[in-house]
What we know:
With 109 residues, this protein is an all-alpha fold. Helix content is 39%, strand content 0%.
Amino acid sequence: MVNLKPKDEWRPGVTTDSLIAEMDRALQFPGVSNAWTMPIKARIDMLSTGIRTPVGVKVIGKDLAEMEGVARQVERVLRSVPGTSSGYAERVIGGYYLEVVPDRARLAR
């Protein structure tokens, strides 16, 4: 959540679109896509669609590998649609995990 100052306190020449572009360049995290919207609008969209963005595509099936492949194809196609600000298919398989095995003897010291 980003709380903005009133527009009259913004740097000269900054617009909503330029601010979004600047934040997109600065805030990139693996596996996370940015969705810049108002909190109440995001909440209403999520309640009505089950997806955290105003427009989304759900891929449903029984085989996770096949669903992943179809979702990635949909992602590639939608990214090329004019007016699309971002396209991202959630990865349902092959995630990155970090396993931490504590050394109990050293921790006990």
